[in-house]
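quick one: zinc ion bound model?
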Amino acid sequence: MLIVALAVQARLHYLLGQVLATGTVVLLTYLITVRIARRNWSDAGWLAYAGGVVAALFMAFGTTFWDNAIEAEAERLLLSLMHVECDPRGRTPFIERYLHGGIYRRRPDVMAVAHGHTPSVVPFGLVGTPMVATYHNAAFLAAGVPVFDIRATFGMTDIVISSAERGAALAEALGDKAVLLLRAHGFVAVGPSLPAAVFRAIFTEISARVQLQAVTLGGSIAALELDEGRLADAINLATVGRSWEFWKRRVTP
Ligand SMILES: [Zn+2]
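yep, here:
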């Protein structure tokens, strides 16, 4: 009973924090807009309405990392002021959050990041053999799959992306690609939506398996070329919803 009460309390605090954070950001945006407008134009009454419209539009249509980051920071500040313990179990934050944060900072086109340590992918981060797009579902690999070797920048480490500096270096290695291999660690797959990132993570693993099987047959691998990958990836992104619904049904009771 106590656990249930604590869980309900945590969720109420979370919802309250979100409402207050959103309100705070709208208010700050309104005040800043009015201030800038009055400095540049006059003290006209319509500026107050204009400020309100800008603030409302900012929160209603702002979907970038920075919009969310501002709101999150306001929420964190408010929760701190309220002395709220959000997690009744006292868990520490996920250590590799810097991996995700580094990519979001560098890539405004990325809306979701999937990170995995799946066994078929790891070998490609260890040897010089490039990962290729073995079939159409893995078309996003045709643009190239760079490898991030943490030793190159940070020397001897615990391999984990556990600081903002490591996250930034990883994001730089990713560049504009969809997938990055992490030497002796795993990989990240990014996308313009959560379904796209999950799609790419799953088919990175499957394509790795196919490539390992193809190698055992001997001869060269006739993988997707760059233009084929670009064209096929556009189709995959347009139809990713079908796979997403299927995967959701598999994990939804
Ligand atoms: Zn990891």
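The chain is about 60% helix and 5% strand.
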